[in-house]
Amino acid sequence: MNTWSREERYQSLDDVTPVTLEALKEQVASSAYRQTYHIQPETGLLNHPSGLTFYQGTYYVSHQWFPLGAVHGLKYWFNYTSKDLVHFEPQGPLIQPDSEYDSHGAFSGSAFQYNGELYYMYTGNHRDKEWKRNPSQMLAKMDSKGSINKFPKPVISGAPTGYTDQLRDPKVFQKDNSYYAILGAQNIDYRGRLLLYRTEDIVNWQFLGEVKTQLDHFGSLWECPDYFDLDGHDVLLFCSQRTGPDGERGRKSYQSGYVIGQFDIEQLSFNHGEFNELDHGYDFYAPQTFVDESGNRVLIGWMGMPATTYPTDDEGWAHCLTLPRILNIEEGQLKQRPIPQLKKLRRNKETALGYANKFERQLMPYDGTQYELIIDILDNEATELYFELRTSKDESTLISYNTHTQHLSLDRSESGALPKPVEVTNRTTRLVNPLTQLHIFVDTSSIEIFCNDGERVLSSRIFPSKASNGIKASTESGQVYLKFTKYELSSDAQQEG
Ligand code: FRU
Questions:
Q1: 101 lines ligand 1 (CB under 6 A)
Q2: Boundaries of domain holding 405
């Protein structure tokens, strides 16, 4: 693996020749792991989706981007537009690290509308000669041609007393005729915190204080916050670094989760239930939400993890975004369902009824590397169910389900090339209800598994060889009857209405 010096990581697009960039593009394009219907970088590293919005009939989806290689270097925003959240048009860099306040990275932020116009609030990082970071919260406005004009000065400079320089990712929201921004922060005792600011005119921001939660000792830094009301509840999303082992969550370092409760914004206090992970797969972090044209709350996440080396790093690119999901709260539970427009990707339909048991490891009558698969569990007398995808003689991505404990696990240890380090060998979650359905999206190098109509989601990158394309079902003991519905997916599929 290449090691990158600080100088190399802080090169901008202007520091490299078009020939160098073209060579990198060609190298990336020849990767065997390129996705076919997920947003992925043309070169370099993608992370945190930023500035998601629906504005005047168009969706805008940007992400954090270091163009020159698969490392966290000088960050840009790369922007896409879309009419349907399924087909995306790359628009190139949106916010560039080209001012004194964001000279060391245009970090994440969010989009909002003010007087009918589209604005972005984001974090600019500047480092001095001693490499000390100064965070600024910046504003930018989109003009009628889609270009970005930055405001000349930050609207929030530095961090308030009692907090470190790790202040970032403003998520702007409107409540009771005011605009608020919630930011990820760290206090001087190295505890993760969320800070709230308010403005009446978008330029003058008043620091209101820290959002009081019941998670005082939970991680050393919180980032990528999001707040919204959903089906009569207040929901707070955030990511926590170095959270420590905790039951079935299993992840020590980076957790992306939510709490549901009531936010008393005057008192700054958020009364909430348990912190839950949003996604139980291996690769999910830094999501952001927005409201779509029908009023749904839609979430897109980063299908990647910090501090992890991926098999594509040496090819000069890393990561992709998850598929968009609609969030709802039903009977107190968060549901996440793939957006229905994804049906536009379907090319053909195959269905089969089948059964599996201990002795007959059923090879399903179809295979593939880019597909949507719905497995309905019709009648289940088995103790443990196994579904293997992207399988071959040598490789297999294994989903297992224990009927008694209702634990569902994903094991990618034999799925092909592996991200490193391996922090957890399998990812497990306990379902609320017995398993009745798996709704799975497989792309060249990823799998997203929706269980029981959105009760749980597991998203992971997998790096199998192209020949590993089988689908199998079996049990530990007892028999299970299954219905399989499978669609080949392609972003070139005929678009129906
Ligand atoms: C999430 C994050 C954000 C930050 C961005 C920088 O992984 O650390 O907090 O804005 O990435 O690229």
A1: no
A2: 346-488
